[in-house]
Amino acid sequence: MIDFLVVFAVSYLLHGLGVTVGYHRLLSHRSFSCPKLVEYFWVFLGYLSFEGSPIWWATIHRAHHHHVDTPLDPHSPRYGLRKAHIGWILRESYEAHMDPYKQAKDLVRDPVYRFLELNGNLLHSHLLSYAINIGFRLIIFAYFGWVAALASLLAGIAVLQIPLMLNVVCHIPRLGYKNFQSKDDSVNVWWVALLAMGEGWHNNHHTYPGSARTGMHPFEIDVSWLVISLMDKLGLVSRINDAAKLKATSNELTKNKRWRPSN
Ligand SMILES: [Zn+2]
Ligand SMILES: [Zn+2]
C-alpha cells in the first residue's frame, strides 16, 4: 500500500506539473523561456496524463482566453455545465474560429508537436495519446510490477481531471473570489489551486495571462511558480514574466486592495 501511495503521489506531482508548467504556462502562454530539452521534459510529463496533442491543447486554451465567457469560448460554464466540463473535448474537429496554424503557429513549427497532432485529426491524435499513455504504463509494469503501473495510471487519470474541473469551477463566480475586477467570470478558488498546483488562482491568471506567477499574495500558494523559480535559480530559464513586478494601475484594484505589487 505504501508503494502504491508513494508512486501515486510522485506521479501526480510530476504529471500535474507537466500540465501546469509545460502545457499551460510554457506552451500556451510562453510566460518563460527555457532550453528545448527542458520544454520537452515538462510537456511529455503532461502528455503522459492523457492531455492529448500539445498543439490542440494550446489552441483550445488560447481561444478560451481570447473569447473568455462568450459563445466562442470553447468551455465556458455560462453556456452549459456538461459542455464546459467534457462536452468540448469530444469534438472530432476544430471549431471554425479555431485554427492551430493561426493560434499556435509557434507550436506547429515544432516537428514533435506536429507529429502528435496528426494533421489536426483530433480523433486520431487522441487515440495516439491513449496508446502512448497505455504503452508507458506497460513499460512501468514490465520493470516495476503492477502496483507501480496501476498507481501511475490512476495518477495520470487523476491529473486529467484537473483542467476539466478547473474550467468549470473557476468560472462560476459564487465558488470563489476576485482580486481583480473583470468582465469574465474567472475567480480564485483555493482548493482548486492546491489540487492544481497554483492554477486555481484563475482570476489572477486571466488578469495577467502572460505571467509565470499566478499566486499574488503570500497565502495564494503557487507550487508551479515555485518550480519555475527553482528552474530560474538553476540557470534553466532565460526569460521570465512575473506579474508581481508590474505596476498595478488603480482600476485593476478591487475595493479591498488585496493586490500588492512588489514595486
Ligand atoms: Zn479561464
Ligand atoms: Zn491560461
Q: Explain this structure to me?
A:
The chain has a two-stranded antiparallel ribbon. The chain has a domain of 178 residues. α8 runs antiparallel to α9. By secondary structure, it is an all-alpha fold. 54% of the residues lie in helices and 2% in strands. The chain is built from twelve helices and two strands. The longest helix has 27 residues. The C terminus is likely disordered. The chain binds zinc ion (2 copies). One zinc ion binds next to α11.
Please specify the SSE layout and strand pairing.
Layout: H1 2-28, E1 32-33, H2 36-47, H3 54-66, H4 81-85, H5 100-103, H6 105-108, H7 111-117, H8 122-144, H9 146-169, H10 190-195, H11 202-207, H12 223-233, E2 239-240
Helix pairs in contact: 1-2, 1-3, 1-9, 8-9
The structure holds zinc ion (2 copies).
